[in-house]
Amino acid sequence: MANAKESPNHMTQSIIPFIDLRIQYKVLEAQIKQRIDAVLTHGQYIMGPEVAELENRLTAYTGAKHCITVASGTEALLISLMALEIRPGDEVITTPFTFVATAEVIVLLGAKPVFVDIEPDTCNINVNLIEAKITHKTKVIMPVSLYGQPANMDEINTIAVKYNLSVIEDAAQSFGATYKGIKSCNLSTIGCTSFFPSKPLGCYGDGGAIFTNHDQIAQACKEIRVHGQSRRYYHTRVGVGGRMDTLQCAILLAKLERFDWEVEQRLAIGQQYNQLMDQAEIQRVQQRDDRTSVFAQYTVLVDEREQIEKHFRAAGIPTTVHYPVPLNNQPAYQHLCNKDHTPVAKEIAQRVMSLPMGADLSLADQARVVEIISTNKLTSYD
Asked: Three-class SS string for the chain?
């Protein structure tokens, strides 16, 4: 690939970041520094006052009764399963088209992930296929709100009630989205999210949170995240070191000041992308009318993906693939799920490509992105 001096395109057009966290920081710099300085001053780096403050702010935002901040989105899922007393031999129904953490935590507890295929348009779990996978060993259904859009939660909750199952929404990508007017993370027995830096609401390291309206589950999660303690050095259950650092909570408190605006921008930018893609006849992940997506990723479906990726690299524009291999085809998980046939997930994994997205993405940059796909698409099929 030509370097910037050799390519006029690089000289005349700016590089588009996959997500621009620098602009966000520049806008919030004073608030973030003030929040960090407060923590450095009081020195309570573990379970300081910002932890409880953030949990209160997040319960108010989601409408959930309880919020328990934890060390990461992965830890949120693990602690939630532990709170539900998932044990070796139990089964958890989930999607194979997700980040590995979704299945990883199930296997770490000795349980078995049972993979259900996905919808070809939203890429979320296909609820019509769930009941056929339920057995006497099934304990939990764990849908993933992929790319920022919740799954068909009403139908999933109805199935769960019928079979006396719990539902954990893996909302690592969807904090800020809604389903029928209700916030993601408050749609099921438990909701889990991630505050990884690139998420719609991200800190500057790892972080996550658990949401529930059930008092007993909340208490269990609180104890598990501090090594199973109900009080200092009194361990009522097996736990983990799963606390979220006070500094990361402080950063999120500063970022919450802008978050409503960012969600509005993500919705608007996502819809603008949709219009541009539809005009260019580029297939994209669809959004349902009864819910919103915060577009944690903006994802299209293309043939000749490797060829299109080369064009983006030549233009200095990053893309990525969420996700190239379904979990039931991954070496570490194949032996657990040889009966889980998910042809849609397998086909979709070969075609998805995620594009630059964020609250500060300009219309001009969106147009450049769409032009690259459109031009290559035409070249590929002529």
From this structure: CCCCCCCHHHHHCCCCCCCCHHHHHHHHHHHHHHHHHHHHHHCCCECCHHHHHHHHHHHHHHCCCEEEEECCHHHHHHHHHHHCCCCCCCEEEECCCCCCHHHHHHHHCCCEEEECCECCCCCCECHHHCHHHCCCCEEEEECECHHHCCCCHHHHHHHHHHHCCEEEEECCCCCCCEECCEECCCCCCEEEEECCCCCCCCCCCCCEEEEECCHHHHHHHHHHCECCEEECCEECCCCCECCCEHHHHHHHHHHHHHHHHHHHHHHHHHHHHHHHHHHCCCCECCCCCCECCCCCCEEEECCCHHHHHHHHHHCCCCCECCCCCCHHHCCCCHHHCCCCCCHHHHHHHCCEEEECCCCCCCHHHHHHHHHHHHHHHHHHHC
Domains in the chain, start-ordered, CATH in brackets?
Answer: 25-116+126-252 (3.40.640.10), 259-381 (3.90.1150.10)
Angle between helices 21-42 and 246-279 (to 10 degrees): 170
Between CA 251 and CA 100, with CA 189 as vertex, the angle to 5 degrees is 65
Q: For 198, how many CA atoms within 13 A lie in the half-sphere containing its CB? A: 10
What count of other Cβ atoms lies within 10 Å of the Cβ of residue 64?
A: 23
Global pTM exceeds 0.90: yes
Q: What is the mean pLDDT of residues 180-199?
A: 98
351 is written with which tokens?
């075609």
Question: pLDDT for 336-365, tens place per residue?
Answer: 876 678 999 999 999 999 999 999 999 999
The mean pLDDT of 36-65, rounded to a whole number, is 98
Nearest to 252 by CA among 177, 193, 169, 182: 193
Report the distance separating Cα 248 and Cα 157, nearest Å. 33
Evaluate whether 225 touches 240 at the Cβ level (below 8 Å).
yes
Say whether pLDDT at 45 is over 80.
yes
